[in-house]
Amino acid sequence: MSLDTFVKHSKAQPEPVATSQEIRDRSSTFVANIFKCTSEEEARSCIKYLRRVTHGAKPASHEISAWRCMVLKKEHSGLMGPDDFEVRSGSEDDEEKWAGGKVLKAMVSLAVIDAVVVVSRWYGGTMLGPVRFAHIETCALEVCQAFKQQEELDECISTLSSLDITLAQLRAELDSLSPDADASKVKAPVYPVWTVSDLAKAKRLVKARENAIKSVTTLIEQRRLKIA
């Protein structure tokens, strides 16, 4: 098989939405990654990739994981709305007893869905006792918070794009007030790749577009009254 054929038929490799800061305690290291997934199968694929590829050269002592996914209920079509779906979750301790439940607890506390969190621990040779669970939860919470912020940013960008199209159409109507105005020429603006640090900016832009739409709508109504 040629390289081009391999690349063409290979699945996209999972990329973490966020990675936590490392916590180091008496030679042990903890770090978490969170990936998007929509099923347990996808979650396990992410865990496998992290274990075998990302950490292949330096295997972690434990890859502690938990996932939560919104899935279609058995014998349901999805046409009846939200009641056709349910959240399914699971966790794995990877020989760190009770640790998977700590990761799942962090996900539930922040209502993270359609994601898998993996907290990797490299054991340094010294028993840490119960504090290891605090480190695991801290790492898990950090990536869960980042995941929710990214979701909010994605929603803002989607809303902003829709508002920009609406605003462009209204401005075209204001200019022409013609029933045969060609709204098909209005295209969605292209935004740069933003990070969660741009979330506040995105929210301000959404508010500004909403206010602009109200203003242009008022001007259209006023112009129609003058024409009438």
From TrEMBL:
Residues 26-143 form the Impact N-terminal domain. It comes from the Eukaryota. GO terms for cellular component: cytoplasm; ribosome. Gene3D superfamilies: Impact, N-terminal domain. One of its GO terms (biological process) is GCN2-mediated signaling. The keyword Repressor does not apply. InterPro entries: Impact, Impact_N, Impact_N_sf, Ribosomal_Su5_D2-typ_SF, UPF0029_Impact_CS. Residues 1-20 are annotated as: Disordered. Keywords: Ribonucleoprotein, Ribosomal protein. The keyword Ribonucleoprotein applies. Belongs to the IMPACT family. This is Ribosomal protein S5 domain 2-like protein.
